[in-house]
């Protein structure tokens, strides 16, 4: 009896089926959702090749600042596509540099006085895709023009250190500060400030700090340039005693002046055991306007710093404006905005700069970089090519200050990490009418010694 | 009643049987307000089982409905109770036969991320494949799938629910619905999650435990560590997503007593005694521990790792060489953590308890039978 009922039900069902068909002409919501959720093969983590990119709206082109998640796998059909974009409209100046904290929280320093430091919220939607759900500007107690961030533990306590090139007010001619933040709450613990105009003659000062690095209880920050790019230029490092957050020494880093300005030390890297157990502790310094890389020896025993030694001369090597230090497990990379090249060195030979392979040919303004594998497993490097991240005079943009040379290509170029071969490039100005301010890997830079 | 059955259950049978095409669901409502932590990583859902409101709702009903068992007395929730983070508090579970099963009930949490192999021995390669195993197991739910489909087809509610979610009732769609519900079991608001978001600060003891948990010991470098993260690197989700990563022999048994474990699936002798490394989310409420529930407390678990490791040929090398002392005169495999260090790790493990998850109404028994279990867990906790 039960079987007959079932058969009867099926026959009636057939009549329904014949009249309605089972067309697949239209995609259902389920299919659409499924396509989103399964767009990539499960065999690899396709997000490794995605970057978070800070984009700068170009006022003459009518675009707005934004944070974008961009596909950077040159083997992907989506290469250069913005997969997700969060536009923020409230600020004249954009966010500047991205950093992941050790706990995976995403921060950005900012150029706008109203948002010099921010935390960015990331989450995932129902498709599993990453998305930016917002940003929160943090209280910096008046510190402006955030540049670099470093998380460092001293005496058993971790802090978030941030350099503010504008100090407690960009109107100050000799300003600059290091913000010390409690990393869980983002609360300011201390503002380290030592303006030359407010301290005794000859006392250690802090001015226009940008680069930051630390080892043990010693921190090094650079003195780069006033945020208005006109009031003043630095030429020294400041050593800070982290036991009491006090500046204790200045070290002048300067030799030739190929463009007539002070050397403008920019990024610094404290070479230390966690970077390479074989390397001798020392500080590497890139001078933006000196075109040089310097080494400052460090004596761990008495915590003294030796005389600076120039280890790379850009003028004689045909490069200018050295900027960033990045590292993999075996190599250190230094970007040179002119002519747009990334040079590479053996990590274990530091602090000597011993070449480890062919240069990565980028574009004018070569600056920040990330490393990741492609879908096929090829190891690549992506370089953001913009020095000052400003507009272009050809567009009538008043923010154009290409005063040295053309240093804003507005692109990210991707090259094979082993051979240096250029694989792909995306020009954000051409494609999106925006400048490219900074790039960070979606999952962070991995084993990178940015500081 | 008959008309209802006609319109909801027969279409797909004819379609698949005679024409080979699949019946489309009647409705497909995207999940509203779905949000998952970025740090858990990317997740993927099978192309033929996209998450929809209808599928999750159906899966939840099925999960809690004893209709899935032969005697209509055992549901998935019998062994996977929300208040216990979807474990059951028994050494090994007991199903329709009344015989103790071979394994401890696994907690169900954050299954969107991680494993390509389910069960302690990895014998199922997807949540969908996993779902049908206990239903048919003679000691667990003992149900014949054909009979189950018929029962569901004559039910007052299920035919329309299946029609909305999948188009028809089939074993595959039963499994798919259960998998859909389980994929929504997301835990992301433990104290540790709040700590990661910067909302709270851990106590000194919890922070010490966190550091020990994360560290591999290196006695020569004076680096003390609990060696936990070496195997439990995916401890906030459901495990590893790469092939057979995430299976380990953690020194429970000597060579002669090694259970097949993963070798039962792969046939490889080097996989003897390897079992799935479980999520540690809500670990404080999922006792007893290990694949056979041999440890009643976290203190016993820590004592095992600290000084109770049994050597065997497949023992994890990460365990073998982990020691907080430069030389161990006793020659035993031992972490040599102090009592206070073990207590600190336990304190940290307690930060993984997500009360919101354990009481989330969206995961609860839609038939309102959960109160007794919750009360029992509360009693146990006291």
Automatic annotation (TrEMBL), chain A:
InterPro entries: Quino_amine_DH_bsu, Quinoprotein_ADH-like_sf
Compositional bias of kind Basic and acidic residues: 25-38
Coiled coil: none
Residue segments, region Disordered: 25-49
Name recorded for this polypeptide: Lipoprotein
TrEMBL record, chain B:
Entry cofactors: heme
Free-text cofactor note: Binds 2 heme groups.
GO cellular-component term (any): periplasmic space
Post-translational modification as stated in the protein's UniProt record: Binds 2 heme groups per subunit.
Localization per Swiss-Prot or TrEMBL: Periplasm
Key words of the record: Heme, Iron, Metal-binding, Oxidoreductase, Periplasm, Peroxidase, Signal
Chief localization: periplasm
Binding site for heme c 2: 228, 231-232
Domain of life where this protein originates: Bacteria
InterPro entries: Cyt_c-like_dom (IPR009056), Cyt_c-like_dom_sf (IPR036909), Cytochrome_c_Peroxidase/MauG (IPR051395), Di-haem_cyt_c_peroxidsae (IPR004852), MauG/Cytc_peroxidase (IPR026259)
Gene3D superfamilies: Cytochrome c-like domain
Molecular function in Gene Ontology: cytochrome-c peroxidase activity; electron transfer activity; heme binding; metal ion binding
Residues reported in the UniProt entry to bind heme c 1: 76, 79-80
EC code: 1.11.1.5
Chain ranges of the Cytochrome c domain: 204-353
Family annotation (PANTHER family): BLL6722 PROTEIN, CYTOCHROME C PEROXIDASE-RELATED
Protein name: Cytochrome c peroxidase
């Amino acid at each position: 009896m039960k079987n007959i009922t079932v058969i009867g039900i099926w026959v009636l069902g057939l009549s329904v089926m014949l009249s309605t068909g089972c067309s697949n002409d239209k995609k259902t919501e389920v299919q659409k959702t499924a396509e989103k959720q399964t767009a990539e093969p499960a065999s690899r983590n396709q997000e490794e090749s995605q970057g978070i990119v800070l984009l700068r709206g170009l006022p003459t082109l009518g675009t707005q600042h934004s944070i974008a998640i961009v596909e950077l796998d040159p083997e992907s059909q989506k290469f250069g596509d913005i997969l997700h974009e969060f536009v923020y409209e409230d600020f004249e100046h954009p966010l500047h540099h991205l950093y992941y904290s050790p706990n995976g929280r995403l921060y950005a320093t900012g150029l706008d006085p109203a948002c010099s430091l921010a935390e960015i919220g990331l989450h995932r939607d129902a498709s599993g895709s990453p998305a930016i759900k917002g940003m929160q500007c943090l209280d910096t107690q008046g510190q402006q023009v955030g540049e670099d961030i470093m998380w460092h533990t001293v005496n058993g306590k971790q802090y978030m250190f941030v350099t503010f090139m504008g100090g407690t007010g960009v109107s100050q001619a000799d300003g600059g500060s290091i913000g010390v933040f409690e990393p869980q709450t983002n609360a300011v613990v201390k503002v380290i400030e030592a303006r030359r105009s407010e301290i005794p003659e000859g006392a250690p000062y802090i001015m226009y700090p940008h680069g930051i690095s630390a080892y043990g209880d010693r921190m090094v920050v650079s003195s780069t340039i006033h945020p208005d790019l006109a009031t003043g230029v630095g030429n020294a490092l400041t050593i800070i005693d982290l036991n009491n957050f006090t500046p204790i020494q200045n070290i002048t880093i300067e030799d030739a002046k190929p463009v007539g300005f002070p050397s403008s030390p920019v990024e610094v890297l404290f070479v230390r055991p966690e970077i390479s157990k074989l390397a001798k502790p020392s500080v590497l310094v890139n001078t933006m306007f000196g075109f040089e890389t310097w080494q400052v020896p460090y004596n761990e025993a008495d915590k003294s710093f030796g005389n600076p030694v120039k280890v790379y001369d850009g003028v004689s090597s045909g490069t200018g404006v050295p900027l960033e230090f990045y590292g993999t497990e075996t190599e250190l990379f230094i970007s040179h905005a002119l002519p747009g090249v990334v040079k590479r060195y053996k990590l274990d030979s530091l602090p000597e700069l011993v070449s480890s392979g062919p240069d990565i040919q980028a574009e004018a303004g070569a600056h920040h970089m990330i490393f990741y594998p492609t879908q096929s497993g090829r190891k690549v490097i992506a370089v953001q090519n913009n020095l000052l991240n400003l507009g272009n005079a050809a567009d009538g943009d008043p923010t154009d200050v290409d005063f040295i040379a053309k240093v804003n290509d507005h692109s990210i170029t991707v090259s094979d990490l082993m051979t240096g071969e250029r694989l792909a490039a995306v020009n954000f100005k051409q494609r999106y009418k925006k400048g490219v301010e900074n790039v960070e890997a979606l999952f962070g830079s991995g084993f990178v010694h940015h500081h | 009643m008959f008309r209802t059955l006609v319109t909801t259950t027969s279409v797909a049978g004819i379609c698949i049987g005679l024409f080979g095409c699949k019946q489309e669901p009647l409705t497909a409502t995207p999940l509203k307000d779905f949000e998952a932590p970025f740090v858990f990583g990317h997740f993927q859902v099978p192309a033929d089982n996209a998450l929809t409101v209808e599928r999750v709702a159906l899966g939840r009903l099925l999960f809690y409905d004893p209709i899935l068992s032969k005697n209509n007395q055992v549901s998935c929730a019998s062994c996977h109770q929300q208040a216990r983070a979807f474990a059951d508090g028994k050494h090994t579970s007991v199903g329709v036969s009344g015989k103790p099963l071979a394994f401890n009930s696994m907690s169900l949490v954050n299954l969107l991320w991680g494993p390509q192999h389910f069960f302690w021995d990895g014998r199922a390669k997807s949540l969908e494949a996993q779902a049908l195993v206990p239903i048919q197991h003679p000691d667990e739910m003992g149900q014949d799938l054909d009979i189950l489909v018929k029962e569901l087809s004559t039910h007052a509610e299920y035919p329309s629910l299946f029609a909305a979610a999948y188009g028809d009732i089939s074993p595959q769609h039963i499994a798919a619905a259960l998998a859909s519900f389980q994929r929504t079991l997301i835990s992301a608001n433990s104290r540790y999650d709040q700590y990661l978001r910067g909302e709270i600060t851990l106590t000194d003891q919890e922070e010490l435990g966190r550091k020990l948990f994360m560290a591999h010991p290196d006695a020569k470098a004076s680096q003390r560590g609990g060696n936990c993260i070496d195997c439990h690197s995916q401890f906030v989700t459901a495990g590893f997503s790469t092939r057979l990563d995430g299976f380990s022999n953690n020194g429970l048994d000597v060579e002669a007593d090694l259970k097949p474990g993963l070798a039962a699936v792969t046939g490889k002798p080097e996989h003897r005694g390897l079992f799935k490394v479980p999520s540690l989310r809500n670990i404080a409420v999922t006792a007893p521990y290990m694949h056979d529930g041999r440890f009643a407390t976290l203190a016993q678990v820590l004592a095992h790792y600290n000084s109770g490791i049994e050597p065997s040929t497949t023992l994890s090398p990460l365990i073998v060489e982990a020691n907080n002392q430069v030389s161990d005169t006793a020659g035993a495999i031992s972490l040599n953590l102090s009592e206070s260090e073990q207590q600190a790790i336990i304190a940290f493990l307690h930060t993984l308890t997500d009360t919101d998850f354990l009481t989330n109404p969206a995961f609860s028994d839609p038939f309102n039978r959960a109160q007794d279990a919750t009360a029992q867990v509360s009693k146990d906790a006291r």
